[in-house]
Specification:
Blueprint lengths: L1 H33 L4 H9 L5 H13 L3 H17 L3 H17 L3 H17 L3 H16 L6 H20 L3 H13 L9 H17 L3 H18 L2 H17 L3 H8 L2 H8 L2 H17 L3 H17 L3 H18 L2 H21 L4 H48 L2 H47 L3 H21 L5 E2 H17 L5 E7 L9 E2 L5 H12 L6 E9 L4 E8 L4 H10 L8 H13 L7 E9 L2 E12 L2
Parallel strand pairs: 2-4
Antiparallel strand pairs: 1-3, 4-5, 5-7, 6-7
Helix pairs in contact: 3-4, 4-5, 4-6, 5-6, 6-7, 6-8, 7-8, 8-9, 8-10, 9-10, 10-11, 10-12, 11-12, 12-13, 12-14, 12-15, 13-15, 14-15, 15-16, 15-17, 16-17, 17-18, 19-20, 20-21, 20-22, 21-22
């Protein structure tokens, strides 16, 4: 009988294992059978299964074997979120960066947007505010470019706006944070099941901003509303966060017993959820409630445990607040030396953290700008010295040619030295071109910083942060392009969009800038000199539109004229060349602009290696006999 029971148990165990294995194989098989091309479609598919980490690892390996990029992106993002919840931020970033690289390489915009937001959250958890802002802003810009966004895309926009709001919270800009949260939550007012999480998160964030502004009753209502959404959706993470927030605000209202009733049951919930960020927060809040109820030893134990967890997983905000609470605890005990020790540690931690996320970003950029100008000056002096040496060498060689020619009348020697002269001339041209590009960098940067400075002076922090992000990208593009002889037309247009965005600040964003690109033209393989379009756009703005009243428009189009040429047309609805020339002539200070002349020389040098030359033409646009704008047509040969 015993043998029969034993055999039966072995059989049942084997049967259950086989069923589980079959289920897992069937689960992966079903994915590859449908093989969704859209990232969001795959995301909806996985929501039905709620997969485990082990299953995702298997799915990742299968996706690699089958070269299923969408599956790989999803798997890396899943693993990144898994490690982020455990506060293993380095592992999380490794997985997210893999996903981002794949998404960009395969041009999976949905996957790229989701991944950019996820990376931003990781940096935000670590209080690396600048990195977080850059990633969330990039995700928001990409998502807002999509026409007729899906519910998932709206959620991505909401996440970006919410995250930017949280960055404002960190910087203690609570009014600006509320504006972002209201934008984010407005996308989900319908209250559908799929939007409950966004409603819950934004309601809690609004409550936090209101609490910091002193609106405690309003804050408590929003915390309770957020808790309602989290209970409806059974979101454990959200419930832990809300219970902590409600407990905190009850302490501010001096309702300590109620606060203890709320926070005590949360600790085992946070332990089970195993997110070290929220576990550290729960230990800290429980300890603070106990401190206010004079449960000193219990409070000390929980506050120190909170510091241990926060330190181990680099949760800086919780470390700072826990030190402050421990300082209060020792002060209450009369141990002023220890109280001062923890107070000092709190302030040191706060100073270190806040230095990483302060609003001195502008000063940092200006410092980099000054450093770059000095570096350019040094490089220019070195290049001028090199040019002088080359010219001296050329003259010396020319003299040698004359002497040798007179002495030996040798065609061979003359030809040889002539080639050396041509080579030297080419080096001089290249060095002069590099010098020109480095001189243009300060010109761009100076105008941009002057424009952004006005927002800072006028205390328009929202616009300052937004345009600083644009400005940082523009600086990076300019510095990168100044090191090369040619760039793709795609990169050139991207830089011009940033340039127009910055220049538009000085016109109170009155200029409408449009681009029209032939869809059959691959602008990634078309090569142009870096920053070649900037002087023409600058002329359109400052000579055509600056003196014009009413609507201001600049349109840029790219078309393929033949297999030999592309044509780039820049059209403005400005006052026209004649009127601009009259205005220029009437000014007391006349300064000749050399930007176009230098651009022509650069184009001439650029096309010298091509079979065909470039062409540049200007047209006055007329309507009913009146000048209504200018059109510039630049034809560039294809390789």
């Amino acid at each position: 009988m015993k043998r029969f029971v034993l055999c039966l148990l072995v059989f049942l165990n084997f049967y259950c294992f086989s069923q589980e294995e079959t289920k897992e194989i069937g689960f992966i098989h079903e994915v590859f059978l449908k093989k969704p091309k859209s990232y969001f479609e795959l995301l909806r598919f996985f929501k039905k299964y709620n997969p485990k980490v082990e299953e995702i690892n298997v799915f990742l390996e299968e996706s690699k074997k089958r070269k299923y990029a969408v599956g790989e992106i999803f798997s890396y993002n899943f693993l990144g979120k898994h490690y982020r919840k455990k506060s293993l931020f380095e592992k999380a970033l490794r997985n997210y960066n893999q996903a981002l690289h794949l998404a960009k390489r395969t041009k999976n915009v949905e996957g790229e947007i989701v991944t950019l937001n996820q990376i931003g959250v990781v940096y935000r958890r670590q209080d690396k505010i600048r990195s977080a802002l850059n990633y969330h802003q990039s995700a928001l810009e990409l998502a807002q470019q999509r026409k007729n966004p899906s519910e998932e895309m709206k959620r991505s926009i909401s996440i970006s706006q919410n995250s930017i709001g949280n960055i404002y919270l960190t910087l203690k800009q609570y009014e600006l944070a509320l504006e972002q949260f209201e934008k984010s939550i407005s996308l989900h007012r319908e209250g559908k099941q799929g939007n409950l999480r966004s409603l819950a998160i934004n309601s809690e964030n609004i409550g936090y901003a209101q609490e910091k502004l002193g609106y405690l009753d309003d804050a408590l209502k929003n915390y309770q509303l957020s808790l309602k959404y989290n209970i409806q959706g059974n979101f454990t993470e959200g419930k832990i966060k809300c219970y902590n927030s409600i407990s905190s605000i009850l302490v501010s209202m001096k309702e300590y017993e109620k606060a203890l009733e709320i926070i005590e049951p949360v600790l085992p919930m946070a332990m089970e959820f195993n997110d070290m960020y929220y576990l550290a927060e729960t230990y800290k809040n429980l300890g603070y409630v106990q401190l206010n109820l004079n449960k000193i030893e219990e409070a000390k134990k929980n506050l120190k445990e909170g510091i241990r967890v926060a330190t181990a997983y680099k949760v800086k905000t919780e470390i700072t607040e826990s030190y402050i609470y421990l300082s209060e605890l020792y002060n209450k005990q009369g141990d002023y030396k220890t109280a001062f020790h923890y107070y000092k540690k709190s302030k040191e931690e706060e100073a270190q953290t806040f230095n990483e996320r302060n609003l001195l970003y502008v000063n940092d950029l200006i410092t980099k700008y000054d450093s770059e100008v000095k570096s350019n000056q040094i490089r220019n002096l070195a290049r001028e010295n090199e040019i002088t040496k080359l010219k001296l060498t050329r003259n010396r060689n020319f003299l040698i040619i004359i002497l040798v020619s007179l002495a030996l009348l040798s065609v061979v020697w003359y030809s040889f030295n002539r080639q050396r002269l041509l080579k030297d001339e080419k080096k001089i041209l290249m060095l002069e071109q590099e010098a020109l590009q480095s001189q243009m960098n300060p010109h761009f940067i100076f105008n941009a910083l002057n424009s952004i400075k006005l927002y800072i002076i006028n205390n328009e922090q929202k616009n300052a942060v937004y345009y600083l992000n644009k400005f940082s990208k523009l600086i990076r593009n300019i510095l990168e392009s100044s090191k090369v002889k040619e760039v793709s037309l795609h990169d050139e247009l991207k830089t011009m969009r940033l340039y127009m965005s910055i220049e538009n600040i000085r016109f109170s964003n009155e200029i409408t800038y449009e681009e029209k690109i032939n869809p059959n033209l691959n602008i990634d393989i078309v090569k142009v000199p870096p920053l070649v379009l900037q002087p023409f756009l600058e002329n359109a703005i400052w000579h055509g539109l600056s003196s014009k009243k009413g609507e201001k428009e600049v349109k840029l189009s790219v078309d393929k004229i033949s297999n030999k040429f592309i044509e780039i047309a820049i059209v403005d609805n400005g006052i026209g060349r004649n009127a601009a020339q009259k205005i220029k002539a009437s000014k007391s200070l006349k300064r000749k602009s050399i930007g176009i002349d230098l651009t022509k020389k650069r184009l001439q040098n650029f096309t010298s290696e091509y079979k065909n030359n470039y062409s540049l033409k200007y047209y006055d646009l007329k309507k009913d006999g009146l000048i209504v704008g200018t059109k510039v047509c630049l034809r560039i040969p294809l390789s």
